[in-house]
Design a protein that fits this description.
Bound molecules: adenosine monophosphate
Structural class: alpha/beta
CATH architecture of the largest domain: 3-Layer(aba) Sandwich
CATH topology of the largest domain: Rossmann fold
Strand order of the largest sheet: 3-4-2-5-6-1-7
Largest sheet: 7 strands, parallel
Amino acid sequence: MSQFEALGLSHVLLKSIKALGYETPTPIQREAIPHVLAGHDLMGLAQTGTGKTAAFGLPIVHKLLAENKRPAPKTVRALILAPTRELTNQIAANMREYVMRSPLKVTAIVGGASIHIQKRHLAQGTDILIATPGRLLDLLERKAVFLDEARLLVLDEADQMLDLGFIHALRRIAKMVASPRQTLLFSATMPKQIEELSRSFQHQPVRVETNPPGRAADKVRQSIHFVAQTEKAALLKSCLAERPGDLSLVFARTKHGAEKLMKQLVACGLPAASIHGNKSQNQRNRALAAFREGDIRVLVATDVAARGIDIPGVSHVYNYDLPEVAENYVHRIGRTARAGAAGEAVAFCSPAENHLHRNIEKLMKITIAVASGEPGEDEGKARGKGRGRGQRGQAAKQGHRGSAKRRAQRDGERGGQKPAHAGAGKSKRGRQNDDNQAAARHESAPQHAKNKRPGRRPAHAEAAQSSKPANRNRRPGRSSAAA
Ligand code: AMP
């Protein structure tokens, strides 16, 4: 009996698992699957790359098959929410592999793709729907789909969904999902807000933790170069040139920075592409596909675009800019050393980023090996000496928005000032852009934050429908899946 069989999974699934080449369950799968099969709510703390998708995907498929029923038109039996389009598509691809030998239907809906085609898919009824919150709300508004028969709800990468300001979208959606239901919540990190989310969404969840928060996948070799900001591009080029055959993912802080860096690399003959919030979905898909196939060897990305993507051959992750939120370092380096492979994470730290480096080491409780250079004097301190103490006060007066984490939290809070139905009255285009907007908010440097977001109608338009009851999505008089 295989270890997967011992977990109690059905034969159809065992065949799919074998075809995928999974021999033994990963720790999160071993721990989580029995609880999900037993019907418990679950809070899973696991890094990306640990087999999280199968940890919830396999038991969900098992349960749906055991029920032996078909979804009624426009209904959904299991709903999986994910923060980004890439992750949504990736989860859908995995789920399609799990259901290969069954009649179950998997549908993915993300912003940036044709809503009419999505409506057509949903019209026939869906066993497993994977969605980004913005586009799902849009389709719910249009009554293209109803969630009152979804008895399984998964919130994947919940910490990222909160960072992107999706909390109110999640609350709205959760109200429309069937009750009682089973809710599975997965997160790589465990900020206080996730505990709160769990308390409001889950009932006595079992907690499964395979990696303490902040720990990198064990096989990632980490190093750091202390280097002036102006020297980073040259250093990156020489690192990449040393390993022409490898697949390297390079993280930049802003979309403009990512684009500029990609162009510099291409200009010196390195085959590179970029993914960030300014790229259309088609461009992002093309870049990811080319990277996956090895047609391009370097992908320059911002956090929001790269979160959750699973590209098995990534050997190097470069933190060209250190992330402002230390937890994102863990997510970034989790893009390599996936599924047991080895990988390297190389960080570039300028004097202005010394505090970010310290935050990362504090979070991970490690000291990252120094590859070259030494920490310069903190730029903040140097400035303080050179220009007098007024500098920081000046920054504050100019409305500096503080750390990215606080900024992300405030973005969420700002969303909180909107009514629970925020977005309901947005223009079609505004609604379609929701997922992108959340991404763009996160990627922009502070000075861009005050720029107006395109495609949004005035606040009164958003408030216009806020008096409608949250459960207006429920279909009157519907009773069973057979309807
Ligand atoms: P995930 O964390 O779900 O993104 O999975 C990361 C990678 O691990 C994916 O490429 C999966 O196909 C792979 N994977 C998941 N479970 C297993 C397993 N039990 N054995 C081998 N590979 C796995």
